[in-house]
Amino acid sequence: TQLLEQSPQFLSIQEGENLTVYCNSSSVFSSLQWYRQEPGEGPVLLVTVVTGGEVKKLKRLTFQFGDARKDSSLHITAAQPGDTGLYLCAGSMTTDSWGKLQFGAGTQVVVTP
Amino acid sequence: DSGVTQTPKHLITATGQRVTLRCSPRSGDLSVYWYQQSLDQGLQFLIQYYNGEERAKGNILERFSAQQFPDLHSELNLSSLELGDSALYFCASSVEGGASVAFFGQGTRLTVV
What we know:
The structure holds 2 protein chains of 2 kinds.
Chain A: E1 5-7, E2 10-14, E3 19-24, E4 31-37, E5 44-49, E6 55-58, E7 61-65, E8 71-76, E9 85-92, E10 102-103, E11 107-112
Chain B: E1 5-7, E2 10-13, E3 19-24, E4 31-38, E5 42-50, E6 53-57, E7 64-68, E8 74-78, E9 87-94, E10 103-104, E11 108-112
Parallel strand pairs in B: 2-11
Antiparallel strand pairs in B: 1-3, 3-8, 4-5, 4-9, 5-6, 7-8, 9-10, 9-11
């Protein structure tokens, strides 16, 4: 059983459309990270959020951490084919070791031209 | 390129065999983490080493072991392999043991036949 539930599992959209990926848990996290993983590559960190209610923007990507620090969302505006990849959220309940991150199962996003 | 190097990139072996996966961390990074990624379990933390010593342990099987050498490279040893051990094995590294960010290598895809 995953501590972090991601939805949807798969998302296929046309270039220019918007999309939102959700990451939910019943547990409280001290911080939450979002990664993107492309085929044949390791996950690459996109953002870290640490404060409840925090919103961070990275170009067309907007990340939000829930007020209670139990959930997060990733919103992509005007998606491009280069946004295609597996998006993973990962939560940390401690501050003493990065390795104790709990990863969600991921959302596979496919953006077609 | 994250700067973390993993070898080999692909490995095919038979059940019951033993294999060694190698990881060279980024220059200057003291901490190495091993992760297993499978379709049904997602990314699972296995073990962390910091400056040659075991720092944290996750869901690592007794058939698996790891070590970090004086030059800071790390090896993950998998023995008595089973079909279910087929997965992507990632190494990540960070400067500190309690770092909030780490960088993943490209992974080793292990196939047990």
